[in-house]
Structure formats: structure tokens, C-alpha cells
Amino acid sequence: MKKLAIVLGALAVLVVAALVILPSLVPADKIRAEVVSQVKAATGRDLTIDGKVAVSAFPSLSVQVNSVALSNPAGFQGKELVRLGALDLKLKLLPILSGKVEVDSFVLVDPVISLEVDRQGRGNWVFETAKSEAKSAETKTEGKSADSSGGATLSDISLGEVRIDNGKLTFVDAKAGTREEVDAINLGIELKNLDTPLKAKGGLRYHGKVIDITADLSKPRALIEGATSPLDLSVAADTVKLALKGQASLGAVEGDLDLTVPSVRGLVLWATGKPLDAPGSGLETFAVKGKLAAGGTKVALSQAAIALDAIKATGDFAVDTGGARPSLKGKLDVAALDVNPYLPPEQPATAKSGGGGSAGGGAAGKSDWSDETIDASGLKAADVDFALSLGSLTVKKIKVGKSALRVVLVGGKMTADLSQFELYQGSGKGKVMLDGSQPGIGLDATFQLKNLAAEPFLADAAGFDRIAGTGAFDIQVAGRGKSERALVSSLSGKGAVTFLNGAIKGINLAEMVRNVGSAFTTGGGTQKTDFAELGGTFTITNGIVTNKDLALKSPLLRVEGAGTVELPPRTVHYRVTPKAVASLEGQGGKSDLGGVAVPVIVEGPWENLSFRPDLEALAKGKAQEALQGAIDKKLGGSTGGSNIPLPINPGSLFGR
Fold this sequence. Notes:
alpha+beta, 33-stranded mixed sheet, 12 helices, 18% helix, AsmA-related, AsmA family protein, AsmA
């Protein structure tokens, strides 16, 4: 037994001595040449080792290589794909003798990885030789298990210290003309074996800001074998913070997402180097919490709570990029949406020439419809099925109540169904269909609204406060064009408008009947014409809105109107005829009663309408004769034409 112990001790000494002496018997130059040859055969690239190569076998098997570089293929800007300042690999010796691989340390010092896409879209990380070798190896090993060689497998791996020190990654896209760089990459990985948690912690620097990264994968072996593993991931920087806690599998992840962005504008500026091209002062704070599920081409976010500036919302979203076009499905419920912080500031109103009451009328206003080709490509960018509900909506001064909208977009055709719509005490619904599948864009819209408080709505929507009352609208319109002007010029349709129990402000038609001159020269904003009912129908043909049956009904007064609103040049040509009548009926009364008629011409550009009496009719004496006849009838007989002076003085209309 003593001799056996002596023999075993001697063998141990010989083994240790061999491990110490062996590396010195293997020339470093031979190792360098062999590695270079093998890399060339595997990748087709040139590997250069300019530094020292050191090998040792005790107390661990280690290889240290300095100044290593792997070349780029021809046709790329850079000469190298990868350059390492140093590589230090140490394997525990005894586990190797038992068929296991345990990494004592694996350190990459100053690695520089230069990824590049050339103008033809090729990536410098694609190894053609490696592809063919992989196919050949796959053929040779077909039908054999991965463990048939008896060598170490991935399940036998154990990591000690794995570290990247001061790494750098660049990505150049010659096709797109872009270049991105990430540096100061420092990352440490801890994995005792595949049955213990994998922990990673480190950071990197992008556009001058440090991003800290931590990850904890609880069951690495389960992940490798195709099952799931708990995952806890955190990414933090000054401009964005992200946390994900859930389950991960190969190619998929799901769990609780928590994303916070202190400033959307700041994030875009940091990420792109350019300020966000968006009007307004909004797009600052942004936060999302919800259940994330991502795998393959599909990403879904459910039970989401979203906050953008002062906007709070909840919803569900699902995106699939695997089809011919990306697909988006979802819903969003917003408590109160104020879009004013996201709109450009209003431009100051330009001075208008001429007064609204000039006798000569206003000149036709210049159209501001665009002649540029409408770009409808956005309608073909994706397929969408999305539902939006709003507790309230504020756009400039317009305030919209509870609303519900569903948008469906397929193949460049969009249908927006407004099933609920509350507006200034009124309610309605509508549908808009846009067709961008052909050049230009097609429009088909219907809209119904009732019980609208007209005065506050028109004041907020257009700064127009001339009409008060309760309004109702029923509109149908359709058209198609390659530009705004062409679209407006093609519009056709019909509609009806009614206002009840209101007033027309700025003009007193009853006073006009009594004294045409003072009706247009006195009173100003205090003038108004009360009515019980005002309404009519209209048709639209080639962008021209035509009305022939406008009627205002009020006690002792009836008003009839007819004319056109030309949408392409944005002008109005309209004739209003008020009549003083012997009737106290208002709403629902007859509008064809006989009486005094004094026509009024309304014409000019939209932004500068003029109101004036029909001077041609007055010159012919029609209005004066009608008024004389009414007075004769009132007095029970003829006045003889000039026995009773009339209040109308045509000369006063011309300043005489």
C-alpha cells in the first residue's frame, strides 16, 4: 500500500510538472498560425494577431491573446469587422478531465465591433464560407445526437467571470447614409451553472448619455431547452426608463411593462440628434404601464394605462408585422383630450380691406386651396381596426362632449364611423370614408346633428357670432381629386339646415323694411333680427353649393333667400328678401304671405362678406311701390301715390 501511495504521488507530481512544462513546449507562433488558418477556413476572413500569445495549463488552462483583428470583406468602408485589445480565456482544468466546461474567466478588453451595410444592402457580418460549412456539417451530423461525440455540450457549461471592458460598437448604413455609435460598453455576467440564475449588469454610452442595464434570468437551462424562465430586465437613462418583469422563452417575452419618458422631445433629440419636428408645446412627459407580449412578428400591449402630458387613457393594442402590411388592432379610452398643446400657434389675423357693409361689395377672395398632389400613401401603410372613445375633446376653442369613433383601414380605404357625438348641447353621428387606393383621394361623408347651440359653437369654431338659435344639420357629400382644389371642385351632395328660436346679429331686417338707409348705417353690433325658424335645403354640384328655399319666419316678418356658395374660389353670391307681413305666426307659419319686400345682396369672399340693398330694384321703384301699396291697404284706400311721405330715402343710400 505504501508503494502504491508513492507511485500515485509520483504520478501526480509528473502530471503537475507536465502541465507546467507543456505550454513551453508548444511554440506560440505555431498556435498563432493554426488559429489564423482555422478562422480563414471557417469565415473566409483574415485574422491578424499582432500581439503576444500566451498559453498556460496550471492552475487553469488559459489563453491570452493581444491585439486581434478580423477583416472586412472587399467593398466595405472599414478594414475590420472586429478588433480586440486583448482576449483572456481561462478554463478550470479538473472539470475538463471529467467532460465538463467551466469558464473561470472570459474577458474582452477594448473590443471594437464595426457593423456595416453597403449600398447593395449587404451586411459585413454575413460569412458566406461559414454558411456553406454549416450546411456541410449539418449533412454530416444528420441523424446523430448532439452528444454522440461524447464531448462537452452547452448543458455542461459553467461561467465564472465573464466581462466586457470598454467596448465600442458602430453601425454604418451606406444605403441609408446613417451612422450610429455606442461606446463605453462595460458588462459583467454571472452564471455559476445553467441551473442557477444568470445575472448581467453593466452599461453603455449613447450620444453622450450613459444607459444602465441589469438583467436577471432565473432558469437559463429551461430557456435553452425551449421552456420559459422568469425574467427581470431594467434599462435606465436620463431620457428613458424601462422595466419588464415576466417570462421569457426563445424568441418571445411577456410580462409587466413600465416605461417612463421625462420628455418625448428630449428623447427624440437625444436619439436622433435633431429636435422633434412637431408643433406646439406638448409631447413632454410620457408613461405606459401594461401587460406586454412580444414574439416573432407580433407585439401586444393589454390593460395599458397611458399618460401623455395631461392626457390620461387606457387601452389595448396589438401589432403584427408579418403580413403584406403591418396590422394594428386596438382600442383607446381617453377621459379628456385637449389637442391644443400639439397644434401650431395661431397666426395673427391679417388686415382686411373694405368694410363689411360697403355698398360696392367685396371682391372675390383668393382661394387658399392647395394645388399640390395629395399624398394618400399613408392610407396604404397599414391595416387598422381601432376604436376610440372620448369623454371630451378640445380643439382650439371648440369643445366636444362624449364621443365614440371606430376607424377601419384596409388596402388604402378608410372608414371612420362616428357613432356618438355630443357638441354644444347637441348630439349627432356621422361617417367618413376615404379612398386612397387610386391616385388622389376619394371622399364620401354623411353627418347628422340636432339641438346644436349655434351661437357658442360658431363663435368657437369660426369666430362667427352672427347666428343664434338651436341648429340641426343633415349633410351628405362626396368627391374625388388629386389635390385639395380638385377635390373641392368635384364635391357633390345635398343637405338641410334648420335653426329654431334664434336671431341674425348685425342686421335688423325689420328696421330695413321701415328705413332702408338706416338699416345699413346705424346700430352696428346691436342690430339683430329675431326669428322663430330659419332653414333651408341645398345641393352641391362640382363644388358649388346652391340654395333656393331659405326661409326665415318671425312675427310680422318673413325672409326668403337664394343663391350660391362657391367652394373652389371661396366666395358667396346670395340674395335675401325680407317682407313685412300682417301675421303674428312665427315657427311653422306660412312663408309666402304678401308684404313689403326689400332685397338684400350678400356677396364677396368668405373672409370679407358685404351686405347691401338691391340698388337696381330700388332704382326701378319696385320696393317703393310695394311699400306704398302696403300703406294704402293699411289705411283702407289709395294715398294717391305722394300724399303720404314714405320713410325710404334712396338718396341716403348713396350719402346724399
